Amino acid sequence: QVHIVESGGGLVQAGGSLRLSCAASGSTFRINAWAWYRQAPGYQRELVAGISSGGSTNYPDSVKGRFTISRDNNENTVYLQMNDLKAEDTAVYYCQADIQYYLIGTGWDTRSYEFWGQGTQVTVSS
After folding, report:
1. Measured between alpha carbons, how far is 115 from 29 in angstroms, rounded to an integer?
2. d(C-alpha 36, C-alpha 70), whole Å
3. Which CA distances in Å does 58 have to 87, 99, 109?
4. Cα separation of 26 and 34, whole Å?
5. pLDDT the model gives residue 27
6. What is the pLDDT of residues 54-92, one digit of tens each?
7. CA-to-CA distance for 99 and 26, rounded, in angstroms?
8. How far apart are alpha carbons 9 and 71 in whole angstroms?
9. How many Å apart are CA 122 and CA 81, to the nearest integer?
């Protein structure tokens, strides 16, 4: 079983910066892709950043140029650098990992599984 620990949220003034991180640990596994989502009260959860196994990234227009997703594969860690934060960025942020397990006697599982961080609150004051 994989365990993901998320950290880095907090209170920041508009125009400030925060860096979120998620670290995965557990039995033998590999992470194919990471993503960051956020959810504000009364709003649907939305994707804010994704990074593939090949390193390609994607962002919605609302955060392009301000947010950057990166990863450290050796440490099974993903980061979200958030700059020029706005009040509209206030939400609970969640990381998501797409994971494959190594199966003894078989090799890497052909199936992948989603694991989520516990969420961290980001509050941006005007």
Report:
1. 12
2. 11
3. 22, 19, 26
4. 17
5. 83
6. 899 999 999 999 999 999 878 899 999 999 999 999 999
7. 11
8. 18
9. 12
Left, alpha or beta for 5 (phi > 0: left; psi -120 to 50: alpha)? Answer: beta
Locate 42 and state its tokens.
Answer: 């009364």
Adjacent-strand bridge partners of 22: 6, 78
* Beta strands at 91-103 and 120-125: parallel, antiparallel or unpaired: antiparallel
Rounded CA-CA distance 14/17 in Å is 9
Identify which of 120, 101, 97 has the alpha carbon closest to the alpha carbon of residue 109.
101
Q: Which two tokens stand for residue 40?
A: 């504000």
The answer for residues whose C-beta is within 8 angstroms of residue 20's C-beta and 6 or more apart is 6, 7, 8, 9, 36, 79, 80, 82, 93, 95, 120, 122
